[in-house]
Amino acid sequence: MSFDSFHSHKASPGIIPIAPWQAFNKAWTAVKGYPADEFKFVEGVTPMSTLTETVIIIALYVVVVFGGREFMRNREPLKLNGLFKAHNLLLTLLSGGLLVLFIEQLAPTIWKNGLYNNICGGDGWTKPLVTLYYLNYITKYIELIDTVFLMVKKKPLTFLHTYHHPATALLCYTQLIGHTSVSWVPITLNLTVHVVMYWYYFQSARGIKVWWKEWITRLQIAQFIIDLGFVYFASWDYFASTHAPYLPHVGKCAGEPFAAIAGCVILSSYLVLFIMFYIATYRKASSRRAANKKMADKPAVVSIKESAVKMADGCSGVQHGNSNLVARK
């Protein structure tokens, strides 16, 4: 069965159709009063569709997080474990649900028209995808609550964490208003990572020890490397075809230049920061463990040497003191 016939196929009675978009569309229509694929992102009309709104939320985030840290400085940390579990389970389900909807929309067009057309042509910017892009963008503001939990629990607020969350909201905003068809690549990879990451946080909050924590950071680094491969390619294709057609390029990628620049800069900064975090957290920790083990083994070696010296003294009649060598009488 082809992808086209799959989408047009009506399941017979008694068979459960695998059609996430249909279920999502029914829920959207019930809430909004119109089908999901009729949603329009209009700058200045749609909620959170202007740079001013985005900047205000980011500024509020900074005030709440760092102001809250000062407020909590001489207070006991809050546990809020129930809310923390609910927050992480919600984001796991949201990320997984959006990922499934993206795959359902993208797989048929990639199969039919090819990968290049989806990252540079109109098939990467359909009405259903715009709806999903917008919902993904809104989830970035929900994810800002991650830092609030760290603050009230009096956990360390690293630069990576406090930069990454608001920068991602800004990144998603620039791609929405910039109509970059390649947006689905970083978004779907990010959703994949978030399913794993928020599930880990949920399990951790339940008191379950998860052995693959380090692999989350490795997965994030791999994500940014792949992201940058696609984004750099799409940006090069656009700028070469527009400003230097004599340079090698495939075609002309859709999207605005400012969105391409924002994507390249922000994603590149993520890659650098996450690699630095990985080295500081896991590589240096491994070095410290190795050094501590070496120090722990050293007294045992010294003790063996001392025992050997004492045994030799007993046989030779010579006693080793702290200063002079004294012959026994």
TrEMBL record:
<dbReference type="InterPro" id="IPR030457">
    <property type="entry name" value="ELO_CS"/>
</dbReference>
<keyword id="KW-0444">Lipid biosynthesis</keyword>
<keyword id="KW-0808">Transferase</keyword>
<comment type="similarity">
    <text>Belongs to the ELO family.</text>
</comment>
<keyword id="KW-0443">Lipid metabolism</keyword>
<keyword id="KW-0472">Membrane</keyword>
<dbReference type="GO" id="GO:0009922">
    <property type="term" value="F:fatty acid elongase activity"/>
</dbReference>
<feature type="transmembrane region" description="Helical">
    <location>
        <begin position="259"/>
        <end position="280"/>
    </location>
</feature>
<feature type="transmembrane region" description="Helical">
    <location>
        <begin position="183"/>
        <end position="201"/>
    </location>
</feature>
<dbReference type="GO" id="GO:0030148">
    <property type="term" value="P:sphingolipid biosynthetic process"/>
</dbReference>
<dbReference type="Pfam" id="PF01151">
    <property type="entry name" value="ELO"/>
</dbReference>
<feature type="transmembrane region" description="Helical">
    <location>
        <begin position="89"/>
        <end position="107"/>
    </location>
</feature>
<feature type="transmembrane region" description="Helical">
    <location>
        <begin position="221"/>
        <end position="239"/>
    </location>
</feature>
<feature type="transmembrane region" description="Helical">
    <location>
        <begin position="48"/>
        <end position="68"/>
    </location>
</feature>
<keyword id="KW-0275">Fatty acid biosynthesis</keyword>
<keyword id="KW-1133">Transmembrane helix</keyword>
<dbReference type="GO" id="GO:0005789">
    <property type="term" value="C:endoplasmic reticulum membrane"/>
</dbReference>
<dbReference type="InterPro" id="IPR002076">
    <property type="entry name" value="ELO_fam"/>
</dbReference>
<keyword id="KW-0812">Transmembrane</keyword>
<protein>
    <recommendedName>
        <fullName>Elongation of fatty acids protein</fullName>
        <ecNumber>2.3.1.-</ecNumber>
    </recommendedName>
</protein>
<dbReference type="GO" id="GO:0034626">
    <property type="term" value="P:fatty acid elongation, polyunsaturated fatty acid"/>
</dbReference>
<dbReference type="GO" id="GO:0042761">
    <property type="term" value="P:very long-chain fatty acid biosynthetic process"/>
</dbReference>
<keyword id="KW-0276">Fatty acid metabolism</keyword>
<dbReference type="GO" id="GO:0019367">
    <property type="term" value="P:fatty acid elongation, saturated fatty acid"/>
</dbReference>
<dbReference type="GO" id="GO:0034625">
    <property type="term" value="P:fatty acid elongation, monounsaturated fatty acid"/>
</dbReference>
